[in-house]
Amino acid sequence: MRMLRTKTKYPSRTFYVQKNRYACYSLRSADSGFVDVVALGNICLDVIVPVDTFPQESEKEDLLRSLTLSPPSQDAWEVGGNCNFMIAAARLGLSVGSIGVVGDDVYGEFLNSVLQAEHIALNQGVAPDMDGRANKTLICFVLVDPNSNHAFCSRYDFGPWPLLEGITSIPEHSLERLRRAKAVFTNGFVFDEIPLDIVQTACKEAIQSGAAVFFDPGPRCFTMLEGSRKEALSTLLDLSDVILMTEEEAKIVTGHSDPELAAKYMLERPGARTQWCVIKLGREGSLLRSKAEGRSYRMPGIPVKVQDTVGCGDSFASAIVLGFINGHSIPATLALANAVGAATATGRGAGRNVANSSKVKELLSSFTGQGPHNDALAHLVASIHKPQIQRSVN
Question: pLDDT for 119-170, tens place per residue?
Fold first, then answer.
């Protein structure tokens, strides 16, 4: 198929477009600072807290205060939020950076050490020191009952919002990271952390430099149905090249219980630049509708023994990014994404427990003779064995 070549005003990169799927190739050397994808916001630490029973909603705020004052020891800590996405993406062979806030505290030290060990570029901060009062690392307490069910308790639920103080603009070093990314990934939690205009500026800066924006509203979409939060949701949906949602989230956002209709609705919104809408269907697999092709694709799920679903959606998203920015076929992209999500489900917890490439390859190899899965395996192998031009960006 003929590739159409277009050039932006940025001489360091050339962008190739095939059926409106974008493939970006850096022409600079390894010290240029380019990365495949930048995660925007929601950089937090999960702290695992065993409980006999989950607290009532009215009891959660008091529990949060108590846990914050006396948190469990480090053996209960794990990186969370967008760290799940970043680790999964790095394990797929993508070069990864982040923009957000990691506090100058013991939690931040732990978080940074984990991300560096996973070959993820050092975080580019967006929050200033405020008369010596620096923002602290955000913590989410993960409550786990004897049956391994989960509930969450964090400042994301209680505010005051935005959680990160003093952010009125984006520092130049963070803007530069956005300009040097092929993709930006963010989720609905970012609106709990920083103001809408800052999120909008970040996305527009990336778009102007040729990056694709990926947005997963996540469970926070249930809190974004009116007022300024509805405006925030609508704004980021309109700026996104790729939108990812679960079936339940798609119903909340679009009003359609049929995932096919929900995906079509998202692509037909006036003024939207969205090219792909991806609906995650759990055990049933996934659906992707393409604006350029005017059709939807479904890919069945991969049967596995599920241990834990935490982090599956974040892991899934990393494969969607890989496929989109490299111009892979939609069936192969969905096959890989399903395999990555399934591989994560076979372990317990997220963070460093998300899918590794060996497990993903094992799952894809079981589909010998099936085209999309063979293609997905080939793309994965090529990605993880390509020269890593950006393993430690400062």
Answer: 998 777 886 655 555 788 999 999 988 887 888 999 999 998 999 988 999 9
The span from the CA of 69 to the CA of 326, in Å, is 46
Number of domains in the chain: 1
Minimal CA–CA distance to 281: which of 254, 311, 253, 312?
A: 312
pLDDT above 80 (res 392)? no
Whether 19 is in a domain gets the answer: no
Residue 68 lies in a domain: no
Residues facing 88 on adjacent strands: none
Say what the pLDDT of residue 21 is: 31
* Domain limits for position 303: 30-43+86-106+115-132+167-385
Torsion sign across C-alpha atoms 315, 240, 227, 163:
positive
pLDDT digits (tens, 9 = 90+) for 36-90: 999 999 999 999 999 999 999 999 999 999 999 998 999 999 999 999 999 999 9
143: number of Cβ within 10 Å: 20
Q: How far is CA 350 from CA 3, 69, 86, 341, in A?
A: 38, 24, 11, 11
Q: What is the rounded distance in angstroms from the CA atom of residue 285 to the CA atom of residue 300?
A: 4
* Selection from 31, 8, 38 nearest residue 206 by Cα: 38
H or E segment at 97?
Answer: strand 96-100
What pTM did the predictor assign? 0.89
* CATH number reported for the structural domain that contains residue 101 in this entry: 3.40.1190.20
- Say if residues 363 and 307 touch (Cβ distance below 8 Å): no
- Give the C-alpha separation, 5 to 323, whole Å: 19
Q: What count of other Cβ atoms lies within 10 Å of the Cβ of residue 8?
A: 12
Residue with tokens 């004052």: 69
In a domain, 259, yes or no: yes
Give 203-229 pLDDT, tens digit per residue: 999 999 999 999 999 999 999 999 999
Rounded Cα distance, 242 and 289, in Å: 10
